[in-house]
Amino acid sequence: MSDVTTPQAAAPTRYIPSHIAGDAATLTPLQRELIGRASELGPHFAERAERFDREASFPFENYADLRAAGLLGICVPREYGGLGADFATYVMVAAEIGRWCGATALTFNMHVSSCMWSGFIADALEMSEAERAEHARIRALHYRRIVEGGQVYAQPFSEGGAAAAGAAPFGTIARKVDGGYLISGKKIFASLAGAADSYGVLCTLERPGQEGRGTRRDSLYLAVPAGAPGLEVYGDWDPLGMRGTVSRNLAFKDVFVPEEARLMPEGLYHQAATRFPHMFATLSPTYMGIAQAAYDFTVQYLRAEVPGMPPVKRRMYPTKQIAVAEMRVKLEATRALFLQNARDARVDPDKDTRMRLYAAHYTIMESANDLCRLAIRTCGGQSMLKSLPLERLYRDSRCGSLMLPWTAELCLDRLGRECLYEGGERDEQIE
Ligand SMILES: Cc1cc2nc3c(=O)[nH]c(=O)nc-3n(C[C@H](O)[C@H](O)[C@H](O)COP(=O)(O)OP(=O)(O)OC[C@H]3O[C@@H](n4cnc5c(N)ncnc54)[C@H](O)[C@@H]3O)c2cc1C
Predict the structure, then answer these.
(1) Are residue 388 and residue 366 in the same domain, yes or no?
(2) Pocket lined around ligand 1, Cβ cut-off 6 Å
(3) Which of the listed residues 265, 297, 328 is the one where a domain comes to its end?
(4) Separation of alpha carbons 342 and 285, rounded Å
(5) Is residue 66 part of a domain?
(6) What is the helix (H) or strand (E) element at residue 307, kind and residue range?
(7) Are residues 215 and 200 in the same domain?
(8) Contact at 8 Å (CB) between 174 and 221?
(9) Other CB atoms within 10 Å distance of the CB of residue 420
(10) Which of 8, 82, 84, 245 maximizes the CB count within 10 A of its CB?
(11) What is the spatial distance between Cα 221 and Cα 157, in angstroms, rounded to a whole number?
């Protein structure tokens, strides 16, 4: 066997991590530019990540950087002063942020979702002309707060019951009153709790004669300002991973919001959830970034290029080469599905596209954790010391497939059913 270790004899002597999109040449100029902005902020995020993780505190400094870079308005349409990023552009930027700080990327997703759902997703759905005009008026107020005021929106959705899995109406109720709505209920795991300027709350609109009840069609998406009377942030926050998300609980006791709080017209959220399923697939880009970070760390570690570590190389052992090759195979397979999914997002995707979406979401969430596991096993004992980022990546990566509405279990559940049943089929119809 030749002792030539790489095909490129004149290659640089330090490892150069891959572009998050694999081949940057395939990107649009806007995609290249925005991913580039995130990469420039990245090293600062990485430097601060250990502190936010140790303290379980919110990454305010990172948000100041995102604000200064104009990235808070990434998915605000251009006509409202934003950067007008589409789904594919956003998920690649989110993955690049996740590569440096998972908690920042995950919370950034909650903020950006408020712009995507009210922005290009709402635009793709059916509305009357009057509804569309009213939605344009209202979203302009929210987008101005984000683009000019630098405000941040959270997205409390989970309640601890079946609603966040899409299996029941939200238990948080919005009652129509003069000039707006009164909200009552509670949310758990509200990332950015105590840090957001507004909370984009999913509730059920109470119809006349249906006290405290409603159907999933009555879901309503309302922005509640952080200082609204009757809103309380409560509970401890000391979790395994994603500690910088500060995902505490929220209680709403007759919280009044004006009609301008509607981030989507009444009835539109249900249409979005049934017709634009990619809206739920924006949590996984964070974990694509973590997967890339775990791989990058492993290569740097084995090449003795991790700052602060003794210059002891371990790359010459065949076991390490095989392990890193397995990691690369998993990383490339994950990235391929991630990129395909980024391109697939559209209203009314066909069945194959929807199944690919579940497969992609599942694969990214599970591979991120598996790559971190392989990274620790391959690098060894010293690599899991708290002075290095790998053990945090490992803990953060564990959180992805727990997140509703599409936990790893629920992705398999949906996928398995759709693999074996065509629309409307029941068992008794199968011979
Ligand atoms: C770091 C972090 C940040 C988060 N941030 C947010 C946020 O900003 N906003 C937000 O709304 N939520 C957020 N969440 C919450 C998250 O999306 C889930 O709602 C939460 O993790 C669910 O926890 P649970 O134990 O209550 O799940 P449960 O509802 O008790 O479910 C437990 C498991 O049972 C399975 N299951 C649930 N329902 C069904 C069903 N109908 N059929 C079959 N199986 C089912 C699922 O696989 C699930 O993993 C966050 C979670 C984490 C870990």
Answers:
(1) yes
(2) 110, 155-158, 160, 162, 164-165, 167, 189-191, 242, 245, 247, 399, 402-404, 407, 409-410, 413
(3) 265
(4) 10
(5) yes
(6) none
(7) yes
(8) no
(9) 9
(10) 245
(11) 10
Residue partners of 3: CB distance under 8 A and separation at least 6: none
Beta-strand runs (E) in 235-358: 248-258
pLDDT digits (tens, 9 = 90+) for 25-60: 999 999 999 999 999 999 999 999 999 999 999 999
Ligand 1 centroid to Cα of residue 116, in Å, is 21
Read off the CATH number of the domain in which 256 is found. 2.40.110.10
What stretch of H or E contains 207?
Answer: none
Residues 248 and 193: beta-carbon distance below 8 Å: yes
* Mutation probe of ligand 1 site: the residue of 53, 252, 403 with most atoms within 8 A of C-beta: 403
Number of structural domains found in the chain = 3
CATH number of the domain residue 141 falls in: 1.10.540.10
The verdict on 201 and 143 lying in the same domain is no
Pair (256, 395) in one structural domain: no
Whether 128 shows a pLDDT value over 60: the answer reads: yes
* Domain range for 184: 153-265
Q: Fill in the amino acid letter for 427.
A: D
Report which of 139, 155, 156 is spatially closest to residue 147, judged by C-alpha positions.
139
Using the atom order of ligand 1, give the atom closest to the CA of residue 241: 1
421 C-alpha to ligand 1 centroid (Å): 26
Residues 301-320: b if buried by 16+ CB within 10 A, e if exposed? bbeeebeeeeeeeeeeeeeb
CATH number for position 408: 1.20.140.10
**3-state class (DSSP) for residue 186:** strand
β-sheet bridge partners, residue 252: 185, 231
Q: Is position 11 within any domain?
A: no
Q: Is the pTM of this model over 0.70?
A: yes
187 belongs to a structural domain: yes
Q: Are residues 38 and 94 in the same domain?
A: yes
